[in-house]
Amino acid sequence: MGRTFFVGGNWKCNGTSEEVKKIVSTLNAGQVPSQDVEVVVSPPFVFLPLVKNELRPDFHVAAQNCWVKKGGAFTGEVSAEMLVNLSIPWVILGHSERRAILGESDEFVGDKVAYAISQGLKVIACVGETLEQRESGSTIDVVAAQTKAIADRVKDWTKVVIAYEPVWAIGTGKVASPAQAQEVHAELRKWLQANVSAEVAASTRIIYGGSVNGANCKELAAQPDIDGFLVGGASLKPEFIDIIKSAE
Ligand code: PEP
């Protein structure tokens, strides 16, 4: 079953409207094979309408978070319904920065993924181990538990892309080796096969994130179970275009 290569750009909490416009015009000028790759960029909430209006139509936008259930008296939150109302198709959920800094548990992330999908959003769901967990040999158990919390709540896997993002590789310049990333991606696919279905295992995109850049993306993209990338720092730079083209 073909899995279209997927490249997401997570702009995190960066940018002014001028800087955002500059990034968008670089993306709009990029020569990319748009039928072979799905590109989704994720600006901060406040810039979503601007980016959605100015971005080329073959690229899409994602929010970086949304509330776990229907909106209401939740000061500072943005609901899935609001994103749908603005025709934002994607949302990133379970990013390790939110898990670590804001204390989002596996179950809370699973609830968010399920609610976002129930409202019509597609989800980039992030999983990944800390350095301590890797060094103690529990990487696979950690990512399996994070994935299980999602699988326990989600029926429609066509709406999910899993982003494997080892925490020790995010924003550190220490990218996982192609073999390290491939090993976890293959284990995640095995987990989906054993615990969800063979069809979901074969069709779900599992993308890698953590210090991906224009120089290391090709070797990672050549791994059989790496179906694309979630890119942080390099998604703010012109080399993001090279990353989009890495599967060529
Ligand atoms: C991320 O934050 O999702 C990420 C992968 O960041 P970076 O590429 O900067 O490591």
From TrEMBL:
Keywords: Cytoplasm, Gluconeogenesis, Glycolysis, Isomerase. It holds the Pfam family TIM. It catalyses: D-glyceraldehyde 3-phosphate = dihydroxyacetone phosphate. One of its GO terms (cellular component) is cytoplasm. Gene3D superfamilies: Aldolase class I. It comes from Nicotiana tabacum (Common tobacco). GO terms for molecular function: triose-phosphate isomerase activity. Homodimer. Pathway: Carbohydrate biosynthesis; gluconeogenesis; Carbohydrate degradation; glycolysis; D-glyceraldehyde 3-phosphate from glycerone phosphate: step 1/1. It is an enzyme of class 5 (isomerase). This is Triosephosphate isomerase, cytosolic. Coiled coil: none annotated. InterPro entries: Aldolase_TIM, TIM_sf, TrioseP_Isoase_bac/euk, Triosephosphate_isomerase, Triosephosphate_isomerase_AS. Transmembrane segments: none annotated. PROSITE patterns: TIM_1, TIM_2. Its EC number is 5.3.1.1. The gene is LOC107830628. It is found in: Cytoplasm.
